[in-house]
Amino acid sequence: MNNIPFNRTLVDGIIAKNKIKSVGAASIREVKKVIDDVEKQTGTPFIRMEMGIPGLPPTQVGVQAQIDALKKGIASIYPDIYGTAALKHETARFAKNFMNLDVPEDSCVPSVGSMQGGFASFLTISRMDEKKRKILFIDPGFPVTKLQCRILGIETERFDVYNYRGEKLRAKLESYLQSGEFAALIYSSPNNPAWFCFNDQELQIIGDVANKHDIVVIEDLAYFGMDFRHDYSKPGVDPYQPTVGHYANKYIILISGSKAFSYAGERIAVMIISPELYNHESAMLQQYFGQKTFGRAVIFGSLYALSSGTSHSAQYALAAIMKACNDGKLDFIAELHEYQHKAHIMKKALTDNGFVIVYDKDLDQNIGDGFYFTFAYPGMSGVELLDELVYYGISAISLSITGSDRTEGVRACVSLVPNELLPELATRLEIFNKNMKAKAK
Using CA atoms, how far apart are residues 286 and 280, in angstroms rounded to an integer? Predict the structure, then answer.
């Protein structure tokens, strides 16, 4: 396109107006605002890879169930803080059908997205034991979870797990947890942003070490079933979505409606709390929440204080979606393969034009194609790369804000890139590569 790269004076003015010193060092929402303004001024669409927003229509069985519930007047009725009976029932079935995990319905608790589930988890877990107040982040990970801890005044530590996969993970975890100061650890799998996935050996290591030191494992399954190298779509049939729930005594599994079911706008998720954690008693919990057991403290303390329940109609939507999956009437994975298709094309466009994939291996396998991937351009840091790509109408976020040690890299999300713009992405990358080579001479 003739206007690529964009006029630098125009773009620099927009960046300055947004009071941002560097696009590459900005938060996801700040990057989005700059891009919105540039698109408005130029009339030229960006290749938007900065935000992890679903790019597919919402699961229709959920939409219809939510409409039906609203028509019946559910909007005028406060939701039970405990969660609707249907959602708790279908979540327990879903755990069995798709993770081969037996959990009681009481342990299945709705939240306003996994973001609230995580926030409530941090808030409650950090008030279980006076001696255990820290959270360990197995990075890289979603930047906002650390922000949550910072807001709550919870001390955190972190490490990039990429070079500590397999059996190496045990010693690395021990090096932190043996201090006795940690209340919990958290990770995502598939990983945001690197897209690697922990296998059963690694999940057992996490469970074993967590059990040894009596800490809680928070497992963020925001991208449930989206390791497309395996077919997790059939209820009650192996393979199942891997989970630490088979190994850890105390765990919270966060299952979001946002990505797997494209239901992000309704902010709906469920927390699956292990029975041992749910029934754990603590005098400190009583002091803060007026409840001695963890399950009651997180429900009638944290979640009640945060939002007094989860959107009533959205609970009906998620219950209907899970029921359709459990009954074998909905293959929720089928449409998600669109992300795999786009990731393959986008990664090839990058590597054809001088870029490299940063997190390229999942142990001894190639990283799968999915919702996210990471890339870099030789000789540039991630921040420098993003500061330059903005002039080419391409956006992403720096790995440096995800807890990654790979500061040369950036994270790309495939969901908001329309198929019709994929050829344009290749064209802009070609222009970028040509200009960078000319500049280097």
Answer: 12
pLDDT in 10s for each residue of the chain, 441 residues: 467 899 999 999 999 999 998 888 888 888 889 999 999 999 999 999 998 889 999 999 999 999 999 999 999 999 999 999 999 999 999 999 999 999 999 999 999 999 999 999 999 999 999 999 999 999 999 999 999 999 999 999 999 999 999 999 999 999 999 999 999 999 999 999 999 999 999 999 999 999 999 999 999 999 999 999 999 999 999 999 999 999 999 999 999 999 999 999 999 999 999 999 999 999 999 999 999 999 999 999 999 999 999 999 999 999 999 999 999 999 999 999 999 999 999 999 999 999 999 999 999 999 999 999 999 999 999 999 999 999 999 999 999 989 999 999 999 999 999 999 999 999 999 999 999 999 887
How far is it, in rounded angstroms, from Cα 179 to Cα 224?
A: 32
* Cβ atoms of residues 218 and 185 within 8 Å: yes
Confidence (pTM): 0.95
- Residue ranges and CATH numbers for the domains of the chain are 8-56+334-440 (3.90.1150.100), 78-326 (3.40.640.10)
> Who contacts 264 (Cβ-Cβ below 8 Å, separation ≥6)?
53, 54, 113, 257, 258
Nearest Cα to Cα of residue 233 among 94, 357, 408, 127: 94
Residue 376 CB: number of other CB atoms within 10 A? 20
To 10 degrees, the CA torsion angle through 241, 246, 252, 255? Answer: 10
Q: Is the peptide bond before 140 cis (omega within 30 degrees of 0)?
A: yes
